Amino acid sequence: MVNAFLKDKDLHLATANEWLKLGIPEECLYKSHTDYKLYSKQFEKERDSGKNGVNFPIVYGTTAKGISWRQGIDEELAAAGIEAFFKLYPGVRKAVEECKSSLIKNRYVITLLGRKRRFNDYYKWSDSKKEKALRQAFNFLIQGLFSDVLRIAMVNLRQLFLDNPEWDAKLVLTVHDSVTTEVKLEYADIVTQKMKETMENSYKISIPLPVDISMSETLE
Asked: Is residue 220 pLDDT above 70, yes or no?
């Protein structure tokens, strides 16, 4: 999966291709390939199924039953989607098993930045509740980490703004993984450039963390 990110492979289309047997040549799953846009447009609906029917649900800890209900598909097909994902990215399955081992042994899991979630009553729970705890724990390792990454970026942005008072830039609010700021129009271009640089370099992992920025003008 890391290699796929580094080479800008379309993970959603790749999952759909494996799961739904679309027959897209492997090289055409990379966004740099000349035929990528053709295939992504042709299989737009299937790509969305790969994205919202398999990739994200696995990260969010959804079962085949949950995928079946949300996507309106047969549970057996949903289970096949999960297996297709793990076939493409066996390292993720290994990570899930490591998370499970940590949960059973310690009754807690810890993100890369040290945030901890406890499951103190794990041994008292039914098997179904333990399975739910595992999904929650794995999801926490991802969501908890990037929640902190966003906070680190915000701290760095605040310092950036304090160091450049002429911008009159302010952090206004956050929505999930987005940050809204206000700035004088005359400094908008330089601020967006510096914000992008600051956020993309706030915390380093094995893949890039690209930041998209858009602007709109507010008249007072």
From this structure: no
- Residue given tokens 């007072």 in the structure block: 220
The tokens 């893949």 sit on which residue?
207
Q: At what angle do helices 90-106 and 127-163 cross, to 10 degrees?
A: 100
Q: What is the pLDDT of residue 112?
A: 92
Q: What is the pTM (predicted TM-score) of this model? A: 0.82
Look up residue 41 and give its two tokens: 């447009």
CA distance 59 to 62: 8
